[in-house]
Amino acid sequence: MMRRPIAAFVACAVIFIAAVACGTGPPARLVAGIADTVVVNGLRPAQLPLQVLDASGHVLPDTGVHYQWTSGLPIAVSTRGAVTCTRAGDAAVRASLGTLATHILVRCRPVHEIRVVGGVLNLFVGDPPQDLVFEAVDSAGRRVTEVAARVRYDSTVVALERWRIRARAPGWAAVEISIGDQWAFYPVRVWERASTVDGIRPGQQLAVPVRLAAGEMRSWQLPASPPSYDFSLLPDHGTPPTARLAIVGANCERSSDPLSRWCFALAGASVVVYYPRQAGAAQPWTGTLAVLRESCPRSERERPRTGVCAGGESPS
């Protein structure tokens, strides 16, 4: 007749020992966002980031937490804590678990578009970091200043430090910015500074500083293709795009941008930068000649039979 109480005692003892072994106690407080404040930038339902903690700060399952809108901007709140913001404003939501309760300030700041300022961002290895300039706007085109942004990028090429981006290694990187339901790509190109492009190897991305007086010209010899080349002439900040870019002895694709070319260099080819003599051009032109020599094909079938890529290796 005593088996049931003994079995119940054993079961309770097992639960107690397991709780002690795991180092967790009963729920002691509810914590949401930063100081119980959550910014919502999307128009779709968003789950409130609430945690159930014990007295020691261990995270417990949030099963059984109940949510309810209490005041402020009327918003839809599901029983599991998903909120839907249709317009800007502040709302108060009560979260409760048994006798525990907390009030969450939901700051609805819907973002309808992320605008990336400028085109491709050119960075140079060793230079100071630059600001990653973008803005989030609402349906009326007004800037939204309170945002909860997520960022993804190739950390082998660039590093992001408090919205300042720094070059790590030559290459391409697409910085993906996500705010609410919206996202945008910030294209970044990283160059390695050099004094010349003579002897550039496959896979290299070199940037040569250029300073020209009116009527002056500079040229650099190019190893023959394959692989092909990508050329860009980048004026310094405050310098007008008045210099000219020409590729001699190469087959180039037509481009709407006079400061960029994609070319297949023949034997004896060269790249030329020229600053036309113009009335009132007293100041020298300063900028950068950026040259990418594409990597050798990895596929054996695509490799040329002769030249630097014939061996299947892409020198670094």
Short overview:
By secondary structure, this protein is mainly beta. It is built from 1 helix and 25 strands.
Describe the overall structure.
- This protein has 316 residues and is mostly beta strands.
- It has three domains: 27-108, Immunoglobulin-like, CATH 2.60.40.10; 113-191, Immunoglobulin-like; 194-300, Sandwich (Jelly Rolls), CATH 2.60.120.
- 6% of the residues lie in helices and 46% in strands.
- It contains one helix and 25 strands.
- The strands form six sheets. Strands 12, 15, 18, 19, 20, 21, 22, 23, 24 and 25 form a ten-stranded mixed β-sheet that branches. Strands 2-10-9-6 form a four-stranded mixed β-sheet, with no helix packed on it.
- Strand 18 and strand 19 form a beta hairpin.
- The longest helix has 20 residues, at 3-22.
- It is elongated.
- The model is unreliable at 1-21 and 312-316 (pLDDT under 50).
Tell me the helix content: under 10%
What quaternary form is this?
Answer: single chain
Give the uncertain stretches in residue-range form: 1-21, 312-316
CATH-scheme architecture of the largest domain = Sandwich
Summed up, the helix count is 1
Could you state the order of secondary-structure elements as H and E?
HEEEEEEEEEEEEEEEEEEEEEEEEE
What's the shape? elongated
Which fold does the CATH topology of the largest domain refer to?
Jelly Rolls
Q: Describe the main β-sheet briefly.
A: 10 strands, mixed
The mean pLDDT is 86
Strand content: over 45%
Structural domains: how many: 3
The level 1 CATH classification of the largest domain is Mainly Beta
Structural class: mainly beta
- Radius of gyration, Cα only, in angstroms? 30 Å
Count of individual beta strands: 25
Give the terminus-to-terminus CA distance: 82 Å
